[in-house]
Write a structure and sequence with these properties.
Elements lengths: L17 H9 L12 H14 L4 E5 L2 H11 L5 E6 L3 H4 L4 H6 L2 E5 L8 H4 L13 E8 L10 H13 L3 E6 L2 H8 L14 E5 L9 E5 L2 H4 L2 H7 L8 H10 L4 H21 L5 E2 L7 E5 L2 H8 L5 E4 L4 E5 L6 H15 L1
Parallel strand pairs: 2-3, 2-4, 4-5, 5-6
Antiparallel strand pairs: 1-7, 6-7, 8-9, 9-11, 10-11
Helix pairs in contact: 1-11, 2-11, 8-12, 12-14, 13-14
This protein binds pyridoxal-5'-phosphate (PLP).
The site of pyridoxal-5'-phosphate has 10 residues, from helix 3.
Length: 344
């Protein structure tokens, strides 16, 4: 197994940002009360409230899957259903954790760009009130989507309005909310609470943290008793100060935004540079830090000898290349050169 290599596979493969590690070292002095009853956690929660609104209810978590599954389990009952895109991480990459934790049925909507729209959600309401069918309760959207695209506030508001009118909740998987906010040049909350999201899984891990996620409730009634759900879902960290320190670092001086912008900029640069290469075609809008491309199977094989990245769709020879906060211009230059050589 390679120990150090260049990856365009995922922002999960990036190292932890130095400022985050330093912040963890800084809190590494003496004793502190565990489980979040400490000053660092209070401060970090305050920083998120400054961004997401003073009434936001913030709970720190350890993994994105945990944040999604625990928050969804908290707001549903097992006879409910959750509607999401067929590309949703919930559906594809969480090993059934949302189904296991909630007991709910996931209804998926085919999505070409990672987004879902109210017109596609409407048909699921036909099962309302029919005792043989699971009852639609939550709409879950991902921001930025698994295909690197973004929902604009009007699109989120429309879904939130629809959810509200139909006695449903809107959940957002915001594992890359920072990238979406950077792409749209908007405060994160414009894309979350202010647009009608009820509960958000906010991820910092992909943006330079080590393991720092949060569940944020904008609908405070829903937050009631979540501390017990978090504990039961094994997401309550005893040495919480080290999770809180990561949020403190990213939310001091807008490091979160700087990191997300850089990752997005590098994806855009990569897309611009590969566009001109014959037999490479970009398949999705490059709005955040992912580039999806089709290239000949042989070229993929050659390229994968030197770089780590995933084939997204084998049948189409479609790959996903992801950048992260630490990707630089030289990395892009070298990778583009390798693509050029591989397709020859
Ligand atoms: C969109 C999205 N949501 C959630 C997650 C889950 O994060 P974790 O791997 O920390 O469980 C990921 C991880 O890649 C993701 O891409």
């Amino acid at each position: 197994m390679k120990t150090a290599f260049k990856s365009f596979a995922s922002d999960n493969n990036a190292p932890v940002h130095k400022a985050v590690l330093q912040a963890m070292l800084q809190v590494n002095e003496g004793d502190t009360v565990g489980y979040g009853d400490d000053v660092h956690t209070l401060e970090a929660e305050q920083k998120l409230k400054d961004l997401f609104g003073k009434d936001a209810k913030v709970f720190f978590m350890l993994t994105g899957t945990g944040a999604n599954a625990a928050s969804l389990a908290h707001i549903t009952r097992p006879f409910h259903s959750i509607i999401c895109s067929d590309k949703a991480h919930l559906e594809k990459d969480e090993c059934g954790a949302p189904e296991k934790m909630t007991g709910c049925k996931l209804h998926t909507i085919p999505s070409a760009d990672g987004k879902i729209y109210t017109e596609q959600i409407k048909p699921f309401l036909h099962s309302r009130g029919f005792q043989h069918h699971s009852q639609p309760r939550v709409i879950s959207i991902t921001q930025a989507t698994e295909l690197g695209t973004v929902y604009h506030p009007e699109e989120i508001k429309q879904i939130a309005h629809f959810a509200n009118e139909n006695d449903m909740y809107l959940h957002m998987d915001g594992a890359r909310l920072a990238n979406a906010a950077a792409a749209l040049n908007m405060p994160m909350n414009e894309l979350a609470g202010s647009s009608g999201v009820d509960v958000l899984s906010y991820g910092a891990t992909k943006n330079g943290a080590m393991s720092a996620e949060a569940v944020i409730f904008f609908n405070s009634d829903l937050a009631k008793d979540f501390e017990y759900s978090r504990k039961q879902s094994m997401q309550l960290m005893s040495k919480m100060r080290y999770v809180s320190a990561q949020f403190q670092a990213l939310h001091t001086g807008e490091l979160w935004l700087e990191n997300a912008r850089r990752a997005n900029d590098m994806a855009r640069l990569l897309a611009e540079k590969v566009k001109g290469i014959p037999s490479v075609s970009i398949t999705q809008k490059v709005e955040t830090n992912a580039v999806f491309a089709i290239l000949p199977a042989k070229a993929i094989e050659i390229l994968q000898r030197r770089y780590f990245f995933y084939i997204w769709d084998n049948a189409r020879n479609e790959v996903r290349w992801m950048t992260a906060y630490h990707t630089n211009e030289k990395d892009i230059e070298a990778f583009v050169e390798a693509v050029r050589e591989a397709v020859q």
